[in-house]
């Protein structure tokens, strides 16, 4: 239950947080928000596209304001599954002042507040965003040279420093310690005109893919509230997937971008570590072994990823502040060149350590089949010496045998979904060794997890040497690779603590420091254990500093799955409607009208 002091701090912070949310609600101008109730009712009796058309007519005839139209378009009830409005067209509307920065911010904060009530995805709403939006409108009014992301609201994973707010990692020991400066990533996006307006929930100490803590509670998956959205960027993914932000930013040490993106149906790209470097954030495990720590974006499409990365990689002004970042801008021409030729792509259905469930395997096999039909060559790939690779991963992730993690969890009230993991960290080395020996014949995977720990400084040196050798071996093995994004789709909240070893599926490419992305493949219509309709995805891997190659394959895969899903299910199927209704749980919709 944690110390009484930490329980007291959590209670005091909870009240402070509620007061801050109330203050944000007070600043929110929702004078036109009541129209959303009318729209909500109208959707029950009208076709979605007809309704959007009617709203545009009303706007053009002057019957409703830009503000109302903005509320309507951004409201997830109208944009979910439609694929009509992308952030680029929204950015163009802001550039042309068809929508003001204040209007956009109001609409997104309104939506984010609704989603937070339903899914518990937000940590803090940033009241300063209102003044930022007003200042942007005042400074840039009537000008044509606005910054490229002018007025676009975005969300922030709460392990990034935001000036004046705690960077607590959902731990009581770090509450009441507001930071004095912003993360360099946030500073950079502000310089491009974007507005941070909310920070999002993370698991305690960032050490799980169940997004739960005693400080903020448990975040629910938008497709099934009884399941996890993944982690550690869980709150960020929920808000983005449900339409509460234009894009989100997160970090990845062992899959914290890719796991939640796969479980929430989003696009993300984990770059090579030094392709984009940040300052003023918490990396999760400072002093880690050979594990690449990367930052990236959550978007709905690959097109949006490219747009954002264009302004991020190799930016001259950013490099002046962060000189250790590689000065390598995004090469859009290279993306086009790769897309225009027939490729030789490696793939695997299972990695030799754990076997994914059939739905995740089918996502890979159907992707490979479609690529072959397009004329690309595919080659079955086997990760060399998987036993050694998995042991190296678990030794690199915690070279101190979990001592720092034990410090983070010490005297902390723990979420019930985190307790088992925290307990496992306290198991003495002698018991771990014995358990590893016993488990060899029962579960080689669990035996590897138990017995893979750094014994002494000499072993640490050997571990780093072997990791470098393994990386050099894999560097010559492939150029493109497609694999399952994760072993399972979104699972109930209680399971991640029992399945920590699953992180190897994504963490392998942090250890290799290869760029690795996730692209959704749709929603599987038939699955066991009530998991039908959950998002599935594939993982796409390229060589270090070849993010352009990764993006090219991402675009190819996204396009082929868009065609397959349209042919398979139509533009608005009963399955899509079932997902739509989860955001819209009022009255029973008449499916025939859709």
UniProtKB/TrEMBL annotation:
Biological process GO annotation list? fatty acid catabolic process
Arranged from A to Z, the UniProt key words for this protein are: Hydrolase
Task: Please provide, alphabetically and separated by semicolons, the GO molecular function terms listed in this UniProt record.
Answer: amidase activity; fatty acid amide hydrolase activity
Task: Pinpoint the Amidase domain residues.
Answer: 103-551
Is Hydrolase set as a keyword in this record?
A: yes
Family of this protein: Belongs to the amidase family.
Q: Mind telling me what this protein is named? A: Amidase domain-containing protein
Native organism is Enterobius vermicularis
